[in-house]
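Quick one, T. Sequence first:
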Amino acid sequence: MLIALNKPYGVLCQFTASDGRPTLADYVRQKDIYPAGRLDHDSEGLLLLTDDGALAHRLTDPKHKQPKTYLVQVDGALSDEAVQALRRGVVLNDGPTLPAVAEHAQEPAWLWPRDPPVRFRKSIPTSWLSITLREGRNRQVRRMTAAVGFPTLRLIRVKIGDYALDGLVPGEIRVLS
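Structure tokens:
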């Protein structure tokens, strides 16, 4: 079984929590399935869950280099130089990243409001970026955008390999197989 979930902001990528925070169990009722990868609690978007260990391995093991695409709202007016740096790869504290596919983007028309909303500062604009990675380090997109001078305000995963968010609203699931 393979399920796509649009993971809402603030939801932990696990089925239990001792502190009362929302978890996957609040959205997914199927038993014996597990996330293939994860999204931090402050990230949103596509999360795949499966009962197939081999499929989970193909989706998450870095040697398979499954592309993962994110829409990212950053603090400031994103420069062409910053996008070029992301395309070349940047050096993080745990070493250089692989080159990314990075492009300026527009705020998508289908975007849902976030609760709580991203902070608004009248004097500082925000920008959107589409970025595709083929590796999966801890908080990598956030660290990469910060490294080029544009901290991440909002992070939404829209695609993993051939699987896409495709209109799922936050908290909604779709059985893929």
